[in-house]
Amino acid sequence: MFITYNLRILFPTVLCLVMSHEKHSSLSLSASWVAMRKHNNNHHLELLLLPIILFCQPVSAIDFVFNGFNSSSVSLYGSAVFESRILTLTNQTSFQIGRALYPTKIRTKAPNSSLVYPFSTSFIFAMAPYKNVLPGHGLVFLFVPFTGIEGATSAQHLGFLNITIDRSPDNHMFGIEFDVFANQEFQDMNANHVGLDVYSLTSTAAADAGYWLENSTGSGSNGNSSDDVKKYFKEQQLNNGKNYQVWIDYADSLINVTMAPAGMKRPSRPLLNVSLNLSEVFEDEMYVGFTASTGQLVQSHKILAWSFSNSNFSLSERLVTTGLPSFVIPKDPFFRSKGFISGVTVGGVLLVVSAATIFWFFSLREDKGKQGREQKWRIGNRSIGHTELRVKRSRQQQKDSVKKMSSELEEMERSIRVCYQEAQRLL
């Protein structure tokens, strides 16, 4: 009687668990076991179910959370290093590639099947510019079938692919790019976008980097009117040194990509919401991680935290999003700002020119007054020879005055040139 009763409860429960496993629901089987235990007081049933649940637990299940990195977290390639538990992919060196991958492959497809396992990942990144240096190029969250950086080039290729294997289905590469350079070769929409890269850096879908406000409607940025974008969309500059959090969810051939400033609640409306079948892209097992590059344009690409799971879509809530370092370049004091220096320079030049003009005007006026008085005196005294002498003397004085003024103007020109060169040096 006891066995019959328990089997009557056991089989439907096991059936539900197996079905949830086949559908790859967001709850793991072990989580289902914990939930069932809370609501079932029959300890005999628990003991019977536990071995079955552990046996049914998928070998593909993987969960990890990194609030900081070390050598046991990820494997590094190229220029990637750890800096105070921050994963730094590139630095100020030109034309370099930095890559970091989870140390072991993860199963991305069911064995002997085209069924792709769902996954959920979230990470916090920053693109830190250097002062007085043009920033570039961007980073990619990627799935790749091999380790190392072979087959990748720097600059506009983002350390993801190279021109030889780009657009080749044999490369089995998939990535979400965060790109700050508009490259015509890959038909980039602008120099600040997020894109889905399947086999290629020519994105299958892309959107301006940013997030949608909570009162906006729709499922993504595609197909929205310009009025909606202006009213509800908040564009974010990727390489301003601020920290941004990204959420990427994939299930049932649908991928959602969302981003927002770190510490902000996840926006309910995704940035990208795209139907995407990865069954022909993924191999059965893949490495997962990040890659970035510099070219003539350089910036530091940093990953501050990362979570990944193919069984728990709420794991991202365990990331630490506050109290993180900022990589925004500090502003110069006001008296050293470009506006202040330019204003002082222009103001000084105008002041000198105005003073010179006024001085020149009064000098000419004074010379003309003297000449007029001398002419009156000469006519009154009717002294022809004496008049000629004074006219010659007056003309000579006028020439001397003009010569003096020319010398002063040349001196002012030299002073203005020095001021301008100093302003250029400070700017």
H/E series: HHHEEEEEEEEEEEEHEEEEEEHH
SSE class: alpha+beta
What radius of gyration results from the CA coordinates? Answer: 36 Å
Helical percentage: 25-40%
Question: Largest sheet at a glance?
Answer: 8 strands, antiparallel
Taken from the alpha-carbon principal axes, the silhouette is elongated
**Count of alpha/pi helices:** 6
How far apart the termini lie comes to: 90 Å
Number of structural domains? 3
**CATH fold assignment of the largest domain:** Jelly Rolls
Mean pLDDT across the residues is: 80
Number of strands: 18
**Gross CATH architecture of the largest domain:** Sandwich
Question: Strand portion, in percent?
Answer: 15-25%
Model regions low in confidence, pLDDT < 50 over at least 5 residues: 1-40, 50-57
Q: What's the level 1 CATH class of the largest domain?
A: Mainly Beta
Domain Legume lectin: 62-313
Protein name: Legume lectin domain-containing protein
Coiled coil: 395-422
Transmembrane segments: 340-362
Blueprint (SSEs and pairs):
Blueprint: H1 2-23, H2 29-38, H3 43-56, E1 63-66, E2 75-78, E3 81-83, E4 86-88, E5 97-101, E6 106-107, E7 119-128, E8 138-144, E9 174-179, E10 193-198, E11 205-208, E12 210-212, H4 226-232, E13 233-235, E14 243-251, E15 254-261, E16 272-275, E17 285-293, E18 300-309, H5 338-381, H6 384-426
Antiparallel strand pairs: 1-18, 2-5, 3-4, 4-18, 5-17, 6-17, 7-14, 7-18, 8-9, 8-17, 9-10, 10-11, 12-13, 14-15, 15-16
Helix pairs in contact: 1-3, 2-3, 5-6
